[in-house]
Structure formats: structure tokens, C-alpha cells
Amino acid sequence: MVLESMLNPLKIREHPLEFSLIGFVTTIISFYLSFLVFLDGAPFLALILIMFGALPTLYVGLQNEHAMELYLKSEWGILKKHGQYITMIGSYFLGVFLAFALLVVINPVSVNEVMFEPQVKAVNSLNSHVNGQITSEQKTSFILLNNMRVLLFTICFSFLYGAGAIFIITWNISTVGMATGAALLKNIAIFNSVGLSASNLPLMVGAITHPFLRYMVHGVPELLGYFVGGLAGALISKAVIHDTLNNKETLLDIFNVVALAVVIIFVSAFIEVYVSQRLFML
The domain containing residue 140 runs over which residues? Predict the structure, then answer.
């Protein structure tokens, strides 16, 4: 209950970067607490603890989102308010992402092998399907279908379980953070072999920025799509609970939010294939 008393969703909306710090600190604490105290199942327990860190604020904020559907008459005004809620969610998970990338870099290999085993398997499985002698169209189809499946799960889990969508988002963030940290660690090793000097300063900047560009150029819109999908599922759930599905404004809002999530996922898939994999893959 401490987080509920510390974090006011209305204030967090105005200063979302404060929520990023909460996400960063929560991830660090959850990571080491899981590893040191609950080694069996530690990777997934860490995700659950990170999810719990966001739930109180996001749940209270969601109550306001449903209320806006009933009292705001302008659909644009409603979507604008939803945008503030999505920004709040994104701020928390920005901190989570940065924490995971840092943890990969600073921890010994023995710790990373335990805590990131599920994420490494997921990344290797995805790479085995999209790498190799296949066309860009085939890559786009595979990535799009995979991301649409995750979006569907996000909407359904948000509708049925509420916290389920936050767990799926946390899982995806941890995977992207792990992959970014691993690429950063590899680039740092290459840079260290060259040595530090004024002449290779651009190389140092590139070694640091490349992993973030490689995954965030398409990762940001992809995760944004999941955020919007999670909001859509939660809005459907609230409408069912409060018996407002027969409200025209509520139905229109839900339709628009779902459609927006689908469009964002489509865009992110094309960015991943035609931008990220062509410009930032080494």
C-alpha cells in the first residue's frame, strides 16, 4: 500500500518522468531481490514484482479514463486524455527498459545467464525465423502476425485479468532491454579493444547509441501499440462492469482505441523490417 500513498496519478500525469524513476528503481530492486531470495523462478518473479510496482497508480488512473468516456462529449478530447494515460504508462516502462539494459551491462555473466534465460530463448527463437534467406515481405508478415498475436493477448488479458496486460508488457520490455544491453555490452567490448582516444570518439558514441537505435526505433511504436491495446481491454472491462456498453460514446471510444493500436502495430512491423534491420543490423 506504500506505492498507493506515495504516487498520485493526477500528479504523475503532469510529471511523468518521475514515474520513470520509480520504474527504474523498482526494476533494480525486483531483479536483485528475486535473484538473492527466490532463485527458483527468479526471472519471472522479478517481472511480477515490477508489474506490482505499476499497478496501484495505473489502476487508479484507469478509473478516470472510464469516467471521461461518460462525461466528455468530444471524442478528440477523450483520446487526448487517453494520451496522457499512455504517456504515464510509457514513462514507467521507460525506466524499466533502461534498468534492464543497465543490468545486463553491469552484472557478471553467471547472473545474466540465470536472470535472462527466458528472454535469450525468446530472442533466439525470433531471430531464427526472421534471419536467413527470406524476403522482406516474408519477414514483415511473420513479425506482423507475431505482434498482432501479442496485441490480441494484451487486449484479452487486460479485459479478463487487468494485471495480465501489464505482465505481458513487462515481459516484452524486459526482452527488448536485455537485447539492448547485450548489444551494448558487445559494442563496449569491441571499443575497449580499440582503446580510448580523441580520434575514435565518434566510435565510442556510436558504440553507445547503436544498440538503443537498433531496438528503440521500432520498439517504441511496437510497445506503444501494446500500451494502447492494454488500455482498450481495460476500457472494455470497465464498460462491462458498469453496464455502459450500450453507451454510444463508450463504444466509439473503444473502437477508436482498438483501431489505433492495430494501426500502430502495423507501422512498427514495417519500421522493424525496412528501417531497423537495414540501418542498424551489424
Answer: 2-279
